[in-house]
Amino acid sequence: MQSYALTVDKFLDHAAKWTGDREVVTADAGRVSARLGYAALRERANRLSGALEHLGLRFGDRLGTLGWNTQHHVEVYYAAMGAGLVCHTLNPRLTAAHLAAMVNEAEDRVLAVAANLLPLLGELLPLCPGLEHVILLDEAVDAETVADHPARIWALEALLQTRGKAAAWGGFDEQTPAGLCYTSGTTGQPKGVLYTHRSNYLHTLRALQADAIGLTLGDVLLAAVPMFHANGWGLPFAAPAVGARLVLPGRHTDGASLTALIQNEGVTVAAGVQTVWLGVLDHLDKVGGELPSLKRVIIGGSSCPDALIQRMEQRMGASVQTSWGMTELSPLGTISPPGMPVGQPRASGRPPVGLDLKLTDADGVALAVQRGVVGHLKVKGASVVDRYFKAGADALDAEGYFDTGDLANLSAEGDLTIAGRSKDLIKSGGEWINPGEIEEIIGRLPAVVLVAVVGRPDAKWGERPILIVEPRRDHVIDDQTLLQALRGKVADWWIPDRIVQVASMPLAATGKIDKNRLRTDYAAGDVV
């Protein structure tokens, strides 16, 4: 059989040839700012590869990005990866100090930055002496307005016009590094995960399975998950691979902006973390309206309460697919199939082919029974990390499985339910309390939007749980109602001693509940 390297440039090549007129749509605050077919986008991205070569970048060099979900960011993805460079996506919601540590460890030579992030760029540049060039994306900006730094500043359109030229794509080994993404750091120091072309390609094929994300040529996809978060869940590869129309919301993912895009662009599939869809629900409740084109909503990032899933399905008129994944998995791990009955409780689904799961005890020994018990979750597959970036030793056990740090349960049918993080367990009186089980029960209450349980120091018991709840807007929940929901479902000594109701749950940079912040704010049990 032919030798056919699995490199991600082939996705855009395929889209340009067979669905060249299908659009990539970019918006700003819900209003479309650009439309471009895949053929034209491929031509621009390829000429940008030539421009990067002119800037002196060579095979294997790293290019950082600080950008939103826009056409320009997609062009940088493919320009870098197609030429054998590494596209290092960075989260603009982090501090300049955190970003600088990642840029410097990665030894990024070029940084592509959204023009509306100039203030952050001004803080970052003095901390990154190794940067040689900065490319400004998305808006026409006078390069001279950027703070003084040895790096040369380019506006993307000017760079394409003066330095752009056709370049050879691919032609290298499929194990060549393609992307670099750092973990969120919610459970420790951020670690770099270096994706290869092969891992991204196979991840895309897994995601496109019918019982997974299952995009088709007829779909219009709204990618509300940030492109700096684990390759945007692989959606910038999956959409062109099948020729699906791709709608990119830019910086603004508030409810009004996303609702307008779904309605005006005829979006059929939308993907993002649950907090994004809360904004859409609140907007629809406030102003009315329907989303007739929307068929499926894919959520991930953290466990979603059943009450919120039911509210989404009833108000948005779409089937909700829950999923679980990690940066280290590229990121898709498991996903529930499309078309599940409305109101049915959701697990995080099953792994598509190409990924294997096992449950172990705390010492890493596989559990004799893998179904119906809670264990430490380990994974293995072609798009699972082997070792972290610049780490000497691999991160796998003797059988080649990666320890996710999650506690999980597999049902008799094989559906995965995350039972919490092993690091989140609360040790009270020498016994363990699992916050995930408490959160799942409270999350079923219709008046609850978000819920978290964290431990606080206790002189007698060592630790005790504190329950933090964000109620639905204009809803009041009595503390006794929350406690009563737990009685008879968990051991009495698991029931939290304190309850805090907050107007807005603190979120980490990736949209997950920020438990580190909650521990800091409420470790003493005091409301702040």
What does this structure look like?
By secondary structure, the chain is α/β, with parallel strands linked by helices. It has three domains: 9-335, Rossmann fold (3-Layer(aba) Sandwich), CATH 3.40.50.12780; 355-421, Luciferase, domain 3, CATH 2.30.38.10; 425-522, GMP Synthetase, Chain A, domain 3. It is built from 14 helices and 24 strands. The protein has helices at residues 9-18, 38-54, 71-82, 96-106, 118-124, 156-163, 197-207, 235-242, 255-265, 274-287, 306-316, 435-443, 479-486, 515-522; strands spanning 23-28, 31-37, 62-66, 86-89, 110-114, 133-137, 152-155, 177-182, 192-196, 220-223, 245-248, 269-273, 296-300, 319-325, 332-335, 355-360, 374-381, 402-410, 416-421, 426-428, 431-433, 448-458, 462-471, 498-501. An eight-stranded mixed sheet has the order 2-1-11-10-12-13-14-15, with helices on both faces. It has a seven-stranded mixed sheet with strand order 7-6-5-3-4-8-9, sandwiched between helices. β5 (110-114), α5 and β6 form a beta-alpha-beta unit. α1 packs parallel to α8 (235-242) and α9 (255-265) packs across α10 (274-287). It is globular and about 70 Å long. The N and C termini lie far apart (65 Å).
